[in-house]
Amino acid sequence: MEKPTQLMHPSGLYFVLEENHQLLSDLALYITQQQAALIKPHWSSVPFLSLKDNLALAAKKNTTMEDVLPFLRLDPSIAKKERETLSRLEELQIQILQALLLEKKILVMEQVLDNLSTSEIQLLLPMCQELAKRFDLCIFLIHEDQRFAHTHYMKTL
Predict the structure, then answer these.
(1) How many angstroms separate the CA atoms of 140 and 14, rounded?
(2) Is 147 in a helix, a strand, or coil?
């Protein structure tokens, strides 16, 4: 099996340029090997399980949902919501929560900003930067709009 080159980046929030084929290839391989979590615009949950049960599937012993929720700016009552009632931003936050519960250190956010409002993006980007620092994560944002690469929350690769 092919091995990705070692990601040699400190924790942080990174914008991945489309021209960076090697990094994109490495990230795809990390996802395939389940070493990284893929965050997509729409959450793929187990359909017959409640939101709380879907999150319980991801829980490892060292990390609890209650420990992580404040950093995601989510109320504990989120677990009682129906999946269909989640906002687009909440779907992203739930996916990030799952990744943290699975203790993933690499998160790849692919085209997640398209359907968010400006205020939701303004909430998401600093939150991701804060999560990267707090939990020692490398969060990679892949998006076609390179204007996001120039925010002060991101490092560009």
Answers:
(1) 5
(2) helix
Mean pLDDT of the chain: 87
One-letter amino acid at 33 equals: Q
DSSP one-letter string for 24-52: HHHHHHHHHTTSSEEE-SS----TTS-HH
CA–CA gap between residue 113 and residue 120 (Å, rounded): 9
Find, among 52, 59, 101, 102, the residue nearest to 77 by Cα: 52
State pTM to two decimals: 0.88
Contact 27, 105 (CB under 8 A): no
State pLDDT tens for residues 93-149: 999 999 998 899 999 999 999 999 999 999 999 999 999 999 999 999 999 888 888
More confident: 126 or 8:
126
**Number of residues assigned to the chain:** 157
Helices (H), the chain: 21-32, 51-58, 65-68, 88-101, 118-135
The label of the residue with tokens 């949902």 reads 65
What is the number of helices (H) and of strands (E) in the chain?
5, 5
- Cα gap 10→22, rounded to integer Å: 18
Determine the Cα–Cα distance for residues 17 and 141; give it in Å rounded to an integer. 9
Give me the sign of the Cα torsion angle 149, 28, 134, 79: positive
